[in-house]
Amino acid sequence: MPTVLITGASRGIGRASAFRLAAGGWDVIGAVRKESDGESLIEGSGGGITPVLLDITDADQIAGLDTALPARLDAVVNNAGIVVGGPVEGVPVAEFRRQLEVNLIGQVAVTQAVLPRIREARGRIVFVSSLSGWISSPMVGLYSASKFGLEGMADALRLELRPWRIPVVLVEPAQTDTDMWRSAEEQLEDAVATLSPEHRRLYAKHIEGQRKSIPKGQKAATPVEGAAAVIEQALTAKRPRARYVVGTAPRIMGAMARVVPTPIMDRVLRSMGGVPRKP
Q: Where do the structural domains in the chain lie, given as residue ranges?
């Protein structure tokens, strides 16, 4: 029975992937930050998932993986992530650091910690990235920066690990029907609260435009099971691809970004993101 560690397993894509893989015969270790979330995984899977407490920004907990994990580990799914929204000009630098700590640095830390086991098992590494890892949108520029960085790091890692035949795979969903996306309005308000009064004034129309765009994005969000199925494919394919885009709409958007002139693509993205024509 192969063993996989999934970070961010308490909700969304991580939780759905944990349940899917456990049902498919994997020995799943679900990394969560709260004991209650671990208990929920055990209950929901009928005992098929083993929880482990892990905050991927906590160096001590990362170090503790060496004793918390079994001797054999066939795969890791680096899924944990957050979204820090707001205009690049106004988001506090501390919030940008938090974004990178979770979405990029934490992914590297976990991967470094488990790579000796992955190498021994001739296993593979999966990173859950995003369409935002190669198409940046207004008001989520810091999130995009973290995902662009994740993509670049994973590309380098894939090349570096080739001598050991360790596949490194990026899974790239877009809007997915998770509790994080369903609470997008609350997250926007939290982001606005971090802005200075001056930046709230300067970007008032941007904020209102994004607020109006959220319901459209929520309506277009795809079921979480689709991303979980692609993660399973990335883990089980005999010759996994370097990238798996989740869903038809993201594939179309990605194809557009490659061929459409930048000024036209910018116009599309501004419209979708609710950016005003004038301040």
A: 3-178+219-249
**pLDDT value for 182:** 75
Residue 9, pLDDT score? 98
E strand or H helix at 22: helix 12-23
For residue 31, list its beta bridge partners: 52
* Structure confidence by residue, pLDDT tens digits, 42-89: 999 999 999 999 999 999 999 999 999 999 999 999 999 999 999 999
Q: Catalytic positions, please? A: 129, 143, 147
Read off the DSSP letter of residue 194.
T
Query: Alpha-carbon dihedral of residues 137, 140, 146, 148, nearest 10 degrees?
Result: 0
Residue 169: Cβ within 10 Å count = 25
Q: 36-72: buried (b, 16+ CB within 10 Å) or exposed (e) per residue?
A: ebbebbeeebeebbbbbebbbeeeebbeebeeebeee
The CATH code belonging to domain 3-178+219-249 is: 3.40.50.720
Q: Cβ(125)–Cβ(139) under 8 Å?
A: no
The pTM (predicted TM-score) of the whole model is 0.95
Q: How far apart are CA 90 and CA 83, in angstroms?
A: 15
Q: C-alpha dihedral over 230, 235, 240, 241, to 10 degrees?
A: 40
Return d(Cα 209, Cα 110) in angstroms, integer. Answer: 37
Q: Please give the Cα distance from 111 to 106 (Å, whole number).
A: 9
Instruction: Kindly report, residue by residue over 80-109, the tens digit of the pLDDT.
Output: 999 999 999 999 999 999 999 999 999 999
